[in-house]
Design goal:
The protein is of the alpha+beta class. About 35% of the residues lie in helices and about 35% in strands. The protein has a single domain, classed as Urate Oxidase (Roll), CATH 3.10.270.10. The chain is elongated, with a radius of gyration of 16 Å.
Length: about 130
Amino acid sequence: MVLSADVPVTSVCPCSKAISDRGAHNQRGHITIDVKPAEHPTDLWFDELIGIAEAAASSPVYALLKRPDERHVTMAGYDNPVFVEDMVRNVAQVLAASGRIRLYRVRAVNDESIHNHQAYAAVSWTAPTGRA
């Protein structure tokens, strides 16, 4: 059994933040996590994978925000700029440290806001034979 979660996120571009006098551009994206538990399928939950993905991005995506909440989310994202490569690395580090996973694949895709392309990164890992 493979457990999969596709989580919408936002990210703030670190390069844009570094060169801008007035902010940085943001991207909407998705982090997709596929995991195979090491033993019991109930060792992992969708909510856990969603939380890991949201923590790896600049900010989660919210269905509804009031203006003060929108300010907080915007500022928190600006304080945590990440590339797609950072997001997959952040997720992979958490998954690898858990000890409950036989294999994983993590993908991040950003719909760029000022470029005419998507940014993409992926990483996968399988436990060595005999480990899990």
